[in-house]
Design goal:
ten-stranded mixed beta sheet; 16 strands; globular; six-stranded antiparallel beta sheet; 283 residues
Length: 283
């Protein structure tokens, strides 16, 4: 464990990281760890530890994982995860659980796989990012104490008042899909989190992302949409369209985005670029 560093986000989920830290130190008394107070602080810590560390363990949600990944993509460093977020979509998709013994066993074995990442106007994303309805939901969700119940409440409240976004594709091959949409998602893996599968056929190692276009649907369709999303059955229909791409560019009339569940403002035009096999992850 001498070349392993644990990066802990104390603000993730229930904001109670002490049980994890106590359990870690009981199992590995000499464990190196950093309790992050900011993104900049995390970046600085990673830079300081690069030469002496092979595996960086992100303890937090998708936003924390993305922050750590930002500094180790395109290197020989390895990402590992202890999920402690509100959705844990990327952790679910990469088979990391809240079992510390299992994580430590993976670290000792050190099996590694290379996976894709992608960028949104140069900003890293590893899981699912999007604009429109879910960008607005994340913006409002960050004002709450988080948690799945609050996410559902904010989603329902936002849905009834949300006006569709206008999307205009600059990439010529996709201009037939210009139009108004409830949301546009970029999926490197299958799920947002909480087992909500927005792109059931997405793969994190095929050199592509799924652009998911969802039109605003009538209330009668909402239960079917939810059922399909939570049972991995969403597919192309009158309201949902999937575009597998390695690169795409478009304009959209909103700046509200989420990148791996964290709110960002991003100006158009928006360019999505996949970086194939750019991140080493523990398996």
């Amino acid at each position: 464990m001498e070349k392993v560093a644990f990066i802990i986000n104390p603000f993730s989920a229930g904001k109670n990281y002490i049980p994890f830290l106590n359990a870690l130190l009981r199992s590995v008394p000499t464990a190196r760890y950093y309790i992050s107070d900011s993104v900049a602080g995390t970046y600085q810590y990673i830079a300081q530890q690069m030469e002496s560390t092979d595996i960086f363990v992100a303890v937090g949600g998708d936003g924390t994982i993305s922050t750590v990944a930002q500094k180790i993509i395109h290197t020989d460093k390895i990402l590992a995860i202890f999920p402690a977020g509100s959705g844990n979509g990327f952790s679910n998709e990469t088979k990391f659980t809240k079992n510390l013994k299992e994580l430590l066993a993976k670290i000792r074995t050190r099996n590694v796989k290379k996976i894709d990442t992608f960028s949104v106007n140069g900003r890293l994303s590893i899981n699912v990012s999007g604009t429109g309805f879910d960008g607005k939901v994340v913006k409002e969700f960050e004002k709450t104490s988080r948690g799945f119940k609050n996410y559902i409440r904010v989603s329902v409240q936002t849905f009834f008042n949300y006006q569709p976004i206008e999307v205009r594709f600059i990439t010529q091959a996709y201009q037939q899909y210009n139009g108004r949409y409830l949301m546009l998602n970029i999926a490197n893996t299958r799920q947002f989190g909480n087992n909500a599968y927005i792109a059931p056929k997405a793969s994190k190692s095929d050199g592509l992302v799924d652009v998911v276009l969802v039109k605003k649907f009538p209330l009668r369709y909402s239960l079917l949409f939810a059922f399909r999303m939570f049972t991995k059955r969403l597919r192309d229909d009158d309201f949902v369209k999937y575009l597998p791409v390695s690169e795409i560019e478009f304009d959209v009339n909103t700046r509200n985005w989420h990148l791996d569940g964290e709110f960002h403002e991003i100006e158009s035009p928006v360019k999505i670029v996949v970086a194939p096999k750019s991140l080493n992850i523990l398996t």
